[in-house]
Amino acid sequence: MAQHHTTSLRLRLRYRFDHLVSGGTTALIGWLALVCLAVVVPASVVLVWSDRAAPATLSGRITAVWVSVGQTLKIGGAVGSPLHVLASVSLALVALLFVSTLVSLITTGINRRIMSLRLGHSTVLETRHTVVLGWSDQIFPVIGELVAANANQRRSAVAVLAPRDKVWMEDEISTRVGDSGRTRIICRNGSTTDPTGLCRVSPRTAKSVLVLPPAGDGADAHVVKTLLALDAAVPGPGQGEAVVVAAVRDSRNHVTARLAAGPAGHVLCVDDIVARLLVQTARQPGLSLVYSELLDFEGDEFYPVAAAGLVGRTFGEALLSFATSSAVGLLHDDGSVTLNPDPWAVLGPADRIIVISRDDDTAVRSDVAPHVDEEAIVTAGPRTARVERLLLLGWNRRAPLVIEQLDQYVSPGTTLDVVALGAYAATRGSRAATAARSRLEVSFHEGDITDPLTLAKLDVPSYDSVIVLGETGAETETGAETGAGASDARVADLAPAPDPEARADDRTLVTLLHLRAIGDAAQRELALTTEMSADGNRLLAPARDGADFIVSGRLISLLMTQISESPYLAAVFEELFRAEGHEFHLKPAADYVRAGSEVSFATAVESARRRGECAVGYRLRARSTTGPDYGVVVNPDKRRRVRFSEEDWLIVLAES
Question: Rounded distance, CA 472 to CA 464, Å?
Answer without folding.
Answer: 26
